[in-house]
Amino acid sequence: TAALTAGLERIPDQLGYLVISEDGVLASAGELENDEHTAGVMMQMVRTASRFRLSGSADPPFKRMSILDDFVYTVTVSGQKVFVVKRQHNQQEPISV
To answer: What is the DSSP letter of 94?
Structure first.
């Protein structure tokens, strides 16, 4: 598992992460530790998004997906694994001039 999570632990403002495969959660930490519910929701989102291919394109339909709320969930698919990182969402006020 250390090889799977080496880069995830260094992400700034990271509150937790999941590494998921079709077989289930491979690794987790922080606020997402042992969070099977979130893992299931994220896998369903990846499956749904994977169905939307641009006609004639051999490229995958997406490489990264972000879900914004009070937190940012960044989902990246690499190989047969789905990497989910939960980060604090720091909304910035618009600049007035």
So the answer is: P
* Number of domains observed in the structure of the chain: 1
Size (the chain), residues: 97
Specify the CATH number for the domain of residue 50: 3.30.450.30
Answer whether residue 95 is part of any domain.
no
Q: Is 24 left (phi over 0), alpha (psi -120 to 50) or beta?
A: left
Segments forming the whole domain that contains residue 21: 1-88
Residue 63's nearest CA partner among 54, 80, 75, 81 is 75
Reading the block at residue 35, the tokens are 């969070």
Read off the pLDDT of residues 31-69 as tens digits, 9 standing for 90 and up: 999 999 999 999 988 888 877 766 666 666 666 777 667
Q: Between 11 and 58, whose confidence is greater?
A: 11
